[in-house]
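Researcher: I'd like a candidate sequence for this fold, 319 residues long. If you have to choose between options at a position, lean toward the conservative one.
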């Protein structure tokens, strides 16, 4: 097979529609720090209601507990400063501690902070705050997005906060607690138009949190490209990533197309719905997978993309 990761990234690119998410985040990035916090707070008070509190879990909060206790003891002005420092990615001890949290611990940390704000233990974000025109326009842009895109914006902004050091982050992720599954995900998967066992096994493996089985489907130099990220190359990195970020997903692929290539490889595109344990059945994300399978049926590359619109679920052919 003559593919490189780079060439694999562009398979089915003629069927993709640009996502409104990066543009929305770019608007957000232009806001002042108080505007950012206020905007996120407004957005969160809407979307946060659909969070399933069980997902947060005591096990997950234990990593954030020290930081949360520290913040609880502070006067309100200092609490607000901590939040500003996080949003500014300032180089402070708290911002650095936050930076080594895994994605899900970062989310759990803010979730708990939000609960403490509601109780009045932590300063509420719009602290005598007047909504600026910039905030209003970003809020309007967020309202145009579907629910799956909205929670992605919220997640990505939370992940970007704090000062991160990539070296330290990986040690934390190895200890990532599991998300409880209250109902088993569908494991008997049928995807209209798809018979490739590798692809069906991939979905089954993720729906049972069986990351070893998922990894076994990849070539040693295979890559996985999460939404809006660079490809993660090699089984070790993919495994670490999956254990940290692919837990508890409910994957419901609906349809796909498979195109055999001259050299025996196959390009497969599947679209469907994914639910995150954070929101359970409350939010369905419209997702596509673009697989490149080698002639032996192993995954050389898979890209996971957030679809721009629900209509895109059906548009598997070039647009
Ligand atoms: O006061 O096939 C603010 C892979 C500040 C794996 C806050 C995948 C102000 C392979 C921060 C707003 C993983 C790639 C408070 C598939 C403030 C694969 C609080 C895809 C209180 C399919 C904010 C998986 C809070 C996907 C608490 C696509 C915000 C997963 C919380 C996507 C936000 C998961 C939360 C997503 C967002 C999860 C909990 C988008 C969660 C989003």
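Model: Candidate sequence:
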């Amino acid at each position: 097979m003559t593919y490189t990761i780079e060439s694999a990234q562009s398979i089915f690119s003629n069927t993709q529609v640009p996502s409104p998410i990066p543009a929305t985040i770019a608007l957000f990035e232009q806001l002042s720090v108080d505007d950012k916090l206020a905007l996120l707070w407004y957005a969160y008070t809407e979307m946060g209601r659909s969070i399933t509190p069980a997902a947060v879990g005591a096990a997950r909060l234990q990593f954030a507990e020290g930081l949360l206790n520290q913040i609880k003891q502070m006067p309100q002005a200092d609490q607000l400063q901590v939040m500003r420092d996080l949003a500014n990615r300032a180089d402070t001890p708290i911002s650095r501690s936050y930076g080594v949290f895994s994605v899900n611990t970062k989310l759990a940390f803010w979730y708990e902070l939000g609960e403490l704000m509601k109780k009045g233990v932590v300063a509420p974000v719009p602290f005598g705050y007047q909504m600026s025109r910039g905030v209003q326009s970003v809020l309007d842009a967020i309202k145009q997005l579907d629910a799956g895109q909205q929670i992605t914006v919220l997640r990505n902004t939370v992940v970007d906060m704090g000062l991160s050091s990539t070296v330290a982050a990986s040690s934390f992720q190895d200890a990532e607690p599991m998300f409880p599954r209250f109902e088993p995900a569908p494991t008997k998967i049928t995807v209209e138009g798809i018979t490739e066992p590798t692809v069906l096994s991939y979905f089954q493996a993720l729906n049972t949190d069986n990351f070893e089985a998922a990894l076994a489907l990849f070539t040693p130099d295979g890559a996985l490209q999460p939404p809006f990220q660079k490809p993660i190359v090699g089984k070790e990195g993919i495994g670490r990533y999956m254990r940290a970020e692919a837990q508890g997903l409910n994957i419901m692929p609906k349809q796909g197309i498979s195109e055999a290539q001259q050299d025996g490889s196959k390009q497969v595109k599947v679209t469907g719905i994914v639910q995150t344990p954070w929101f359970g059945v409350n939010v369905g994300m419209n997702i596509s997978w673009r697989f490149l399978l080698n002639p032996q049926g192993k995954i050389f590359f898979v890209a996971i993309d957030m679809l721009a619109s629900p209509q895109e679920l059906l548009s598997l052919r070039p647009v």
